[in-house]
Design a protein that fits this description.
The chain has one domain. The radius of gyration is 21 Å and the shape is elongated. It is built from seven helices and no strands. Helix 5 packs antiparallel against helix 6. It is an all-alpha fold.
């Protein structure tokens, strides 16, 4: 299986190099796509209603369901990026990527717990919490 994937990888590189002059191999293309996905994700998050709703005082009933849906979308994008990493860079790099992604998720949840602990110990109301973080 690994030999077949390596053969596919070499054929794609040869196809890219022979079809026209393009001094980018698949690994560079992977980095370009990663940076593009992160940039588009940040722009979607900043300029969507999902982001602006945090600054409104009234919360809708579907707010929790919407937050769960957005979380599933972003985790799916993050984990889905492991597929091209597996086919282009191999199993070891895929395991490293997924391990790093899981570690970052765990650290972000840890940061949320610290924020909750600080907000509750200082008695900061829910309405004013976003102002403290700005």
């Amino acid at each position: 299986m690994k030999n077949q994937l390596f053969t596919i990888y070499n054929r794609l590189n040869i196809l890219i190099a022979s079809s026209f002059y393009w001094p980018i191999n698949l690994e560079d293309l992977l980095w370009i796509s990663f940076i593009s996905i992160v940039t588009v994700g940040i722009l979607i998050d900043l300029f969507s209603d999902h982001f602006h709703r945090f600054f409104k005082r009234a919360k809708s009933k579907d707010s929790f369901k919407l937050e769960i849906a957005w979380t599933v979308v972003w985790i799916s994008v993050g984990i889905g990026f492991a597929i091209p990493i597996h086919f282009i860079l191999g199993e070891t790099k895929t395991i490293e990527y997924i391990t790093g992604y899981a570690l970052e998720k765990a650290l972000s949840v840890d940061n949320l717990m610290v924020f909750v602990l600080i907000f509750t110990s200082l008695g900061i109301s829910h309405i004013l919490q976003h102002r403290v973080l700005m």
